[in-house]
Amino acid sequence: MLVDYNGFDKKFIRKRKLKAAAFLFAVAAYSLALIIINPKDFPVQIPCLFYEVTGLYCPGCGGNRGAFLILHGDILTGLKNNLLLLIFIPGFVLASLNEFLFIVTGKQFRYPEFKSKVLYGLVVAVLLYWILRNLPFEGFSVLKP
After folding, report:
1. SS3 letters for the chain?
2. Domain range spanning residue 52?
3. Which of 18, 34, 78, 107 is a Cys-bridge partner for 70, taking CB atoms 3.0 to 4.6 Å apart?
């Protein structure tokens, strides 16, 4: 269902378009950086603080490498680096398209109202992934970056 913002206050629409443009700029800048620079070759390596302190992988470990590989067409290896990208990349693509639609037309698709069960399910999935990728058993080593 499309939401039409034509009857809204002009100040509200200007602020909303600025937020949409900032979101699109951030997504585009991150994507462009990963197209140009391999995270492994970046001169300044920012380590995962959680990994440095505990020696365990956090849910985000391998995310930059995985996104880099996916942007360069190596989808399976990218997903092997971080399986959560399977959820987050399509979400960012759809949100980016929706925000672009708003900037251009003043209309956008209504974002789904996530019921608490869906949000709890996502949190449980992320926590489960976090735990499973750190188990010392051979079958779970495929979840390590």
Report:
1. CEEECCCCCHHHHHHHHHHHHHHHHHHHHHHHHHHHCCCCCCCCCCCCHHHHHHCCCCCCCCHHHHHHHHHCCCHHHHHHHCCCHHHHHHHHHHHHHHHHHHHHHCEEECCCCCCHHHHHHHHHHHHHHHHHCCCCCHHHHHHCC
2. 2-143
3. 78
